[in-house]
């Protein structure tokens, strides 16, 4: 695996820490900004919505720009967004800083994924994406719990300052170690890249990714109050359980990345089914501290076990447009990361309690399983059509020659 792919994974560590650390900071932010926890949870959705919109927009805007220069610019803007969040005097400005950071994060993900895919053979795409997603997993192991720890002892703003510092380190790595990539001989054409959206498999991949991610983060986004208010654990347990989720994510990413290239649909079906089972168990056993801690680990494992396969699947069905494929995958994940917390907040605001977010998440993942099944059937149907067409070619040639 090229060194540059690992550098991209290192940069993703900073991006992922910022994206997910709010799950351990929501109560503190809500108190400081004088808003409810569901409204504070909208900051998570704001980041995700920014990524949904920003990924395709920045992918299109930077389509003909040098990749290395684009990555440097985006990680710089992202770091400045963290500083703005740390200094935000009110909820509105904090919300705006999250959206700006999300735009830069989305662009980095989209371009970075395209760079990673371009540097490896087709049969190692899932492993390359696993390295990048590994940065996200390590963010959940180290960055997110550290953010919760800093928030508890130094205030939630200190977590934003820490991510800003991590972004500066990532900037140095990208600027010095990512090689200059020559622009293709034929400049990419937007119309050609947009043709991927005519493929039903692309839309099925979008649906699967959004629902699989949304189902997990519908519950995970409110894990801190679930641990303290429902399971009865002390606040000091929150960073440890978030770290445990991250350990599961790292294990899941590693295993899924090695299997997905050979058994992509198998990984998708088993991983999303496992997430569904763990979410149901979490809803049923939310009042039992030991069960909640164990299920947090298992949920991290199953969710990130499928992530390399979800990424690789999009590049497989949209290979003719690698930049937009990366952007579409990023947007799809964050469509789920926006919809999941929003649905979870709606469930809490409706008076159903924090544990009910796991039921809502399980409903989303069940639909994702149905979409995977539909995609698999469509692929088999398309393969049969191609096989029949190839069988008819020799006969057609003979007839023409006669």
Brief rundown of the structure:
This protein is an all-alpha fold. Helix content is about 85%, strand content about 0%.
Number of helices: 16
**Class inferred from helices and paired strands:** mainly alpha
What portion of residues belong to β-strands? under 5%
Biggest pleated-sheet summary: none
Protein architecture, described:
The longest helix is centred in the C-terminal third of the chain and has 46 residues, at 356-401. Helix content is 83%, strand content 0%. With 402 residues, the chain is an all-alpha fold. Mean pLDDT is 83; it is low at 395-402. It has 16 helices and no strands.
Sum up the structure in keywords.
globular; single chain; mainly alpha; 16 helices; 402 residues; disordered C terminus; 83% helix
